[in-house]
Amino acid sequence: MRKRNLTPFLFATKTTSRKPPSPEATVVVRGRFAIAPGVLEPHADPGRMSGDLFDEDDPDAKGASNKPSDLSDFKLHGEVLLTGVCHAPGGKPTGESFVRVAVRDATSHSKVTIDRRVFGPRVWTEALVGKAFTDPLPFTTMQLDWAHAFGGDGFADNPTGKGIATHELPNVEWADVITSKHDRPRPACPGPISPFWPARMKKVGVSYGKEWKKTRAPYYAEDFDWSYFQSAPPDQWLDGYFHGDETLELVNLHPTIPNIECKLPALRVRVFVRDVHGHQREVPLVLDTLHVDSAEGFVDLTWRGITSAIEQDLTDLAFAIIASEPLAERPRPVAHYESLMTAFVADPLGMRDAIPAELRPAYDRAQKLAAEEEKRSATDASEVGDPLASEIERAAALLEPEQAAQLRAAVKEMNEAAKKAYAQATAAVRDAGKPPPPPIDEAIAKAVLAAKRPLDKPAVDFDPDGKPRIELAGAVNAQKEAMDRLRAQSDLPAEARTKLEDAAKKLDDPRLAELDPTLAGGARLVDPGPNRDLRRRDLRGRDLSGMDLSGSDLRGALLSKARLAGANLRGTIFSRALADAADLRGADLTGAKLDEGIFFDADLRDAKLDGATCDTAVFARAKLDGASLVRVKGALAILSKASLKHVKATALELLQSDLSDCDLEEADFTRASLVRCLLRGAKAQRAVFEGSRLGHVCFEEADLTDARFARAAGPCASFMSAKLDRTDFSHVVLPGAHFSGAHGTSTQFYAANLPDSRFSRAHLKDAKLEKANLMNAELGLAVLPHASFRGASLFNAKLLGTQGEGCNFLDANLKRSTLEGN
């Protein structure tokens, strides 16, 4: 699922089912807010979503849960949880204090109140009369966890607590405190109950036999109690859910402010999904969890909802939009989000939104032009028709309406004169008894095809002001040639010859020269050199090979098809320069400023671009084979369909850039940063990405045969449907990575850190996952013949429907996993 998140909150999905065996999708949105008086504001660090978290020295999760799961399937009630510490008022040591969390609605009616008494360390005594325990020692902070609540070894409700078979008394108690070793109160911890403790495990049900496998697997049994997902103690549940604008009172839960009153942010969170068939729907959400963490100083709010699905791995849900609105305002119409979804589907990477506002018109024109080029490239040469008219219409589509009308008028006037002159000349020739020349449209078409086709690059360019420059010279000159051939006939009547000459003059219309300066003739030439001011100069087609242009200012210069092979361009400024199809082979562009430059179809093979910048630059279909891109930096660059074979791109930094369908064979991206970059469909055989940063990178459908990713790191990387033959992911740290649908043989994941990763429907033969961390991983429906999980952690992993003939699970941790494969 591709998502566009318009909020600062986290979003996740998981498979569930309330009516097995039909799958459903749980959607979760979690916002984190900083504890402070007033309206809660988003926290600077949103953290990341996870299941229940346990101590590092508790690999079997037998102890207490330190953090509630964000990924509960569904909650029947809203609930409040409190973790963290009690702060002594004013920071002054005290032997006894209390904490309070009170949630009140707009009418000050209490929805939930958590009151706990908190004591310093105490121990039992052997006194026969009086108190059976010592006075509490002073404290400034006291943990509010299960280890400090009533319990002890063998006590099912809290095996980690104090008071049973211990000398110490609990530090966190109810208002009605214990007075005797024989008291057995309910633990007063206000934090999450472990999903593996009896209080919750008894709700999982027992009817998981043959009938369950036949009618409900892999979902919950018929006797499953959905309150299993309530992780808070029952006294902290609501009758319904939170509205979102409640008042929150926190007492002794802040290091410097003993009593804080704040308000929830009053937000309406909305999620819309679109399936693979294009059907869109809203997922109804409820705010079901309020979690206060006084140690870290945040409040987590979680919205949750369920929607239908078709596929168990939710692959039928293709897109999602996450948004929030003020509760005080009326909900935005569904049509608004349908429009956003349509735009998102058209531009999933969000390239346009990320482009500065002043550059978006040029970006839109470039997109329109690309679509036109795609359409034109599919047109057979025999269907050329009137080439000049075609070029003009392409230009008109990119102009303002008034400019387009003026251009069409000029061309219409010119064409009418030319055709009238041609008709008269043809009639005169026919009267003289000679065969007429071919129709002028046909003559022009043939001349243009001979002189100008095949067009393997766009014929429309843009100057630095965004005004289109169209290659009209070929079509105009072809029309002139056709007329010249007519005039060359010696017996052409004088009147017809005059008409042709008048028509030819109209081909010199200045309005055409504005769009193609080469039609004006006498283009100004310059004498290039180092540190020259060449801004906006027309150097198209110039031979500048081997010249020293170092330090020159080429902002907005026209360099289409210019020859710059071997040129010294160190430190040159190419901002907004137009260098499409330019020859830059072996050129030295070290430290050059290429921001917003257009290098479409340019040849930069073996060029040196070390330390260059390329924000919003366009290198689509460029040839960069063997180039050096060491420490190149850029954001929103476009390199789609470029060839980067054998490039050296160590320490390169690209952000949210498009490298889709690139050829990266044997490219070296060691220690590079490709955060949020799109490499869908890339050919990266034997490429090296070792030690690279790959947060949110997309390698979907890429060929990564023999590629090396050892020690790469970053959250939520996607390798969906990628080819992974012998790909090396040893020692990577890629939490939440997507390998769904990936396929390959002998893929290496040795000691890979892949918690919360997804391998659903992956087909990985002889995969090596030894010592890998696959905690909470989703491997449902994966095909993993002869895979080795030796020493791997599959704690709480989902392997339902997984096929793994000959797999090796020696010394693997399969605790809490659902190993139901074939």
Strand content: 15-25%
- The poorly predicted ranges are 377-385, 440-468, 520-526
Number of strands: 26
Mean pLDDT: 85
Morphology call: elongated
- Helix/strand-derived class? alpha/beta
Largest sheet: 6 strands, mixed
Overview in brief:
This protein is an alpha/beta fold and 822 residues long. The protein is 16% helix and 16% strand. Helix 7 packs antiparallel against helix 10 and helix 9 runs antiparallel to helix 10.
Structure characterization notes:
There is one protein chain. This protein is an alpha/beta fold. Among the domains are: about 365-515, no CATH class; about 525-660, Pectate Lyase C-like (3 Solenoid), CATH 2.160.20.80; about 695-820, E3 ubiquitin-protein ligase SopA (Pectate Lyase C-like). Helix content is about 15%, strand content about 15%. The strands form eight sheets. Strands 2, 3, 5, 6, 18 and 19 form a six-stranded mixed β-sheet that branches. A six-stranded mixed β-sheet has the order 4-15-14-8-9-13, with no helix packed on it. β16 and β17 (about 280-285) form a beta hairpin. Residues about 375-385, about 440-470 and about 520-525 have low confidence and may be disordered.
